[in-house]
Write a structure and sequence with these properties.
Elements: H1 8-18, H2 24-33, H3 40-48, H4 56-68, H5 75-84, H6 92-107, H7 111-126, H8 131-153, H9 160-187, H10 193-220, H11 231-237, H12 239-254, H13 263-289, H14 296-324, H15 332-361, H16 369-388
Helix pairs in contact: 7-15, 8-9, 8-16, 9-10, 9-16, 10-11, 10-12, 10-16, 12-14, 13-14, 13-15, 14-15, 15-16
Length: about 400
């Protein structure tokens, strides 16, 4: 059963038994030690599902008991109980207190037990991939890679096959995004941080893929081989704010304390955009245009030439600030999807820079080497998104 879909009654019973609290009377005694005294009959109603506690202080005390008994090991698990009680996710202060309690509880266990927990965490990390989603997506990407290889072997640059290849790899993020929307539904869509993260990532993949499909429409109907800039870019560019917001909400779901106020974070926020704009300006204006923008149409192209890599780097900077200084705190089930997503964004940045330069000097064509770089970025982003759902199991 998916953890996010479990009721408070199911979670309460699961964590109570995992804590080796054999009776509800024993649980009542532990709760009394936390300063809260209730009739044991109330706990029976909780376990049957007749009632659900709504007092946040009480919920936090329940979580505290389970943490101390070793049944709750992460902020994610604590948030499932909070969500089951129909309360908002843990805030920064609660997360910080809970992480301290988890650390304190862990240090109190024997070395043997700690080693066993570490082995269990490793097994979670390495068994994280959703086999069916990974197999289907990898198979599809393999077909894309094979199709691109054929274009290169037969040196096809301006054929119908090149245009079809564009539609083939643009469909991949759309399908992954739609599947992601269904995963977000299981999380409750926009009702909690994880649901928001999955929904926003899914939306970003869909808008990027739709941009590729609109590009294909330009190829086949008005027969414009390289429609850049065009209405396709309106859809493409929507992806970045959606991905950026998705990373932000995923950090909340993963229980990471944001480090935006540190001096290192502030320096990154200033330096990265400056470096990115400088690289884009050099490639798009100095190298490709000889240092001058010659006509009005170029202003729109110049905007997108700078905007795409800049937005890529802003997301990478955001991720570095949120996750880079606190990566060891992320629950194991989140790490590999995050690695995939961040690698996908870095590769997309490289592709955007190459694409901007090639379109400026007239070297781009559908199915060019940069297209397989774009396809690789979308594959990694899609794979990361679909495997976020493994955290529900």
């Amino acid at each position: 059963m998916n953890q996010q879909n479990q009721t408070f009654a199911e979670l309460f019973k699961k964590y109570r038994l995992r804590s080796e609290i054999e009776t509800l009377s024993q649980f009542g005694d532990l709760l009394a030690q936390e300063g809260l005294v209730y009739e044991n009959s109330l706990f029976t109603h909780w376990q049957k599902g007749d009632r659900v506690p709504k007092d946040r202080k009480l919920i936090m005390k329940i979580i505290s008991i389970f943490v101390k008994r070793g049944s709750i090991l992460s902020v994610f698990e604590a948030n499932t109980i909070v969500a089951a009680a129909d309360l908002r996710d843990l805030d920064d202060r609660e997360i910080e207190d809970l992480q301290g309690l988890i650390k304190q509880a862990s240090s109190g266990r024997s070395k043997m037990k700690t080693a066993a927990v570490d082995d269990a965490d490793k097994s979670i990390s390495y068994s994280l991939f959703n086999p069916s989603a990974t197999a289907v997506l990898t198979g599809y990407f393999g077909a894309v890679l094979f199709s691109w290889a054929l274009l290169q072997v037969f040196q096809m640059k301006h054929t119908q096959a090149n245009l079809i290849f564009n539609l083939l790899y643009s469909t991949m993020p759309v399908v992954a995004g739609i599947l992601g929307v269904f995963h977000a539904r299981k999380w409750g869509y926009m009702n909690n941080s994880m649901g928001k993260a999955v929904a926003l990532f899914s939306g970003g993949l869909i808008t990027w893929g739709v941009g590729g499909l609109i590009w294909g429409v330009y190829n086949f109907i008005p027969k414009i081989e390289v429609p850049y800039p065009s209405y396709a870019d309106v859809s493409y560019i929507l992806s970045w704010p959606l991905w950026g917001a998705g990373i932000y909400y995923l950090s909340i779901a993963a229980g990471i304390k944001r480090n935006i106020k540190t001096s290192r974070s502030k320096k990154l926020l200033i330096l990265v955009p400056i470096i990115t704009i400088s690289i884009s300006y050099y490639l798009s204006v100095v190298l490709a245009r000889g240092g001058a923008i010659t006509n009005n149409a170029d202003y729109f192209k110049f905007f997108f030439d700078v905007a795409y890599p800049l937005l890529d780097m802003l997301i990478i900077t955001e991720a570095a600030i949120i996750y880079g200084f606190s990566f060891r705190l992320i629950n194991g089930r989140y790490k590999w999807p995050l690695y995939l997503i961040l690698c996908g964004i870095v590769i997309d940045y490289i592709a955007d820079v190459i694409f901007s330069y090639q379109t400026s000097v007239g070297a781009f064509y559908n199915g060019a080497p940069v297209d397989i770089v774009f396809a690789s970025a979308m594959y990694l982003l899609s794979l990361g998104l679909l495997n976020l759902s493994i955290a529900r199991n």
